[in-house]
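Most newcomers find our protein records easier to grasp once they have seen one. A learned vocabulary of local backbone shapes supplies the integers on the structure line. Here is such a record, shown just as it appears in the course material:
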Amino acid sequence: MLAIGDTAPDFTAIDQRGSELTLAALLAKGDLILYFYPADFTPVCTAEACYFRDSVAELAELDVNVVGVSPQGSDSHQRFADRYDIPFPLIDDSSRELIRAWGVDGPLGFGVRRVTFLIGQDGIIKQRAVADLLLNSHKALVASVLEAQADS
């Protein structure tokens, strides 16, 4: 799994709207919160997406963008985004290329770890939260971003 201080691997991927995203283009807009989650419509993943949804406006004011990644396809992501009013991109990683590149495979290569990365505009991972079942560390990462920006 990638660690704080590592260079984030570049990618090209498709989101729920069929739009092509690249890490370079996302970082051109500011820092990036890239979070990996196991599955659309599951209770913890839904709570996590809704937490990011509720934080996205504050983060955007600080030029911090949010993007989610999971192994479901674009159609599932679109239904999930529509049902829960998710305003940010959800990447279709049904090929699991990003999951492998970022080292967030589940045990024995099955599933996906719940991991949130904060990537600076320079492409370096600034923070990371890992917690498969609980959201506290992921929420703390967002809170620290908001606090750090408020202090500067």
Q: What stands out?
A: Residues 62 and 150 are 9 Å apart (CA to CA). The chain has five helices and seven strands.
